[in-house]
Amino acid sequence: MLVIQDPFGRAIEYLRISVTDRCNLRCVYCMPEHGLPYEDNAEILSVAEILRLVRLLAKHGLKKVRITGGEPLVRANDVLALVTEIGKIPEITDLGLTTNAVLLAPHAQALKQAGLKRINISLDTLKPERFAKIARFAKYEEALDGLHAAEEAGFSPIKLNMVVMRGVNDDELSDFAALTFLRDLHVRFLEYMPIGQVTPHEWRAKYVSNEEVVQRLEELCDLAPVETTASSTSRVFRMNGARGTIGVISPISHRFCAGCNRLRLTANGALVPCLSDNYEYDLKTPLRAGVSDDDLLGHVRRAVSNKPLQSDFEGRAERGGSLRIMAQIGG
């Protein structure tokens, strides 16, 4: 098997697949309040097109797939079909889903039975009124219902992803950390990233480094480091007596590029080698032109040849941010 490597020798083992650019929330760090000019349905990759690409890449080193959006569960039937079929690919050993959980409750059990292994839930506050301000929709109870349904379906551990924003939700760090004592949850604190329409001024005002997050948590309790893989994007800790863990994901203050093994596929079929870069490569056109697997693989390799050595979020912010916002790229 000839694995796909970038120019710096990093093997590509992880593909994040955005199945839609649509979302049922309007989180302040992700989407504008008025929403987006969504792609026409005809421009969105079909289940069959996505599966063809995953099956091909699985023969060349792909091991991990995560389904994202937008909010992927606005295409719940297609997500279930993808999970079912990707779960049959022997080379894919890690299959996950990132969701805001608002639509998760009625689908959690079916997704588990279909072969989904892991769920990441984006939840930025534990306060209903604040949830409505951050997400611009009063859907806190629905999100909690989704979290509880995932636990009842047997997903364990579940990762909770919180984007830390100064003056918005950074007073809840201890509340989120405390959840790991009660349940087998892996709480992840993410740095606020200058992607899309976020201005440099707004980003700097809200940005909280994860060094500060760790320091503030260490003032409350001892944090014992937990070993992670070389490609992990997070530094992980466990508090004494906790069932779960806490982690910090630091794309700004501690770039995790050295072990980066991932690509992103947008809903309209563009391959994105780096989240902080505006470069993307069209795969939809060759897919729909019916090219051979060898030709399709060649398109992928050309895209990977443009994967940079490291991210440059701060430089991107100074130059006006990314062309796409997070909901269009895939989280």
What does this structure look like?
- It is a single chain.
- The protein is α/β, with parallel strands linked by helices.
- It has a single domain (14-329), classed as TIM Barrel (Alpha-Beta Barrel), CATH 3.20.20.70.
- The protein has 12 helices and 12 strands.
- It has helices spanning 47-58, 76-86, 108-114, 128-135, 140-153, 173-182, 200-206, 210-218, 284-289, 293-304, 313-318, 326-329, and strands at 14-18, 64-68, 94-99, 118-122, 158-164, 185-191, 223-226, 234-239, 245-249, 262-265, 270-272, 281-282.
- The chain has a 12-stranded mixed beta sheet with strand order 7-8-9-6-5-4-3-2-1-10-11-12.
- β7 and β8 (234-239) form a beta hairpin.
- Mean pLDDT is 90; it is low at 317-322.
List keywords for this structure.
12-stranded mixed β-sheet, 331 residues, 12 helices, single chain, alpha/beta, TIM Barrel
Q: Under the CATH scheme, which class? A: Alpha Beta
Could you name the ranges where pLDDT drops below 50 across 5 or more consecutive residues? Answer: 317-322
Number of strands: 12
Give the ordered list of helices and strands. EHEHEHEHHEHEHHEEEEEEHHHH
The domain count comes to: 1
Oligomer: single chain
CATH architecture classification: Alpha-Beta Barrel
Which strand order does the major sheet show? 7-8-9-6-5-4-3-2-1-10-11-12
Shape: globular
Task: Summarize the helices and strands and which ones pair or pack.
Layout lengths: L13 E5 L28 H12 L5 E5 L7 H11 L7 E6 L8 H7 L3 E5 L5 H8 L4 H14 L4 E7 L8 H10 L2 E7 L8 H7 L3 H9 L4 E4 L7 E6 L5 E5 L12 E4 L4 E3 L8 E2 L1 H6 L3 H12 L8 H6 L7 H4 L2
Parallel strand pairs: 1-2, 1-10, 2-3, 3-4, 4-5, 5-6, 6-9
Antiparallel strand pairs: 7-8, 8-9, 10-11, 11-12
Helix pairs in contact: 1-2
